[in-house]
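Researcher: Structure prediction, please.
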Amino acid sequence: MKSTILVVEDNPDVMLNIRLTLEFNDYEVFSAINGKKAIQFLSESDTVPDLIISDVMMPEMNGYDFFSKVLENPRWGLIPFLFLTAKASPEDIRFGKMLGIDDYITKPFEEEELLAIISGKITRQRKSERVRKEVENQLISKLESEAQPSLSKEEKANINLFCMKWDETYGPEIFDYYPKDNSYLSVIQEVGVQLFHSSVAIYGSEGCSQAQGILLRVETIGKSAFAFFDSIETEDVRGGERLFMLTVLAPHISYFESMKINELFKQSSSLIKASQDWNVESHWEKVSNILTTSQITLE
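Model: Predicted structure follows.
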């Protein structure tokens, strides 16, 4: 497939020379006599050129104004843009570079130089586009992966939700949990203590006293954990704040799911801080729904 080039030039002789040179070297050429006509072409055409060559001094809309209009449009803004002009003082060239022009070629130009620059710019642009598409495809693939729920409905029994508070004498202790499976309680207590101490080591006690969550992998039990920390103002403890931690343990928790859980735990935290019944079973159901339901709809 031929590369397409839009040439914007008001001098008919220069335009003919450029057109013949490019077409002889297997480029498809579109033309406009000034920036205004070029904008009209870009707006009405289904073709987005691979490169634009523009004169600077033109009637109705000069090259600088034309380039500014091109940059404003997200469909055209990444097209390589060359100024081809007799206006070649160091100040003019510096001004063009400051605007973001890809290159500045002065008249009269050497045919070999023009073709070499065009070929280099188009090749570089296509490589950049391939890299961009590869990155985009990788991101879409990751999103599609994250869009799938981490767990099936049948795996809800593997989800544990619990809340721990810091006791001045005993350290972190569980005060509410679900499911009410006492055979797993000692494991939850041990993991909870590890998470509590690890997070305090990471954030410090002051950091943990501010509402925030952290997603971790607990390799000792082969589960993911999302722990949310906050504090309750009270005069019963030193410092006037009692730390507490809301935690969900599950075979896997994705990043997007942790964001949903974080929002839920903010609500739970508000209830706990207000000494209201936060209904651990109801919150377990909500967490389970997050982990067993697709979180993202991709078009």
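Model: The chain has eight helices and ten strands.
Researcher: Thanks, that helps.
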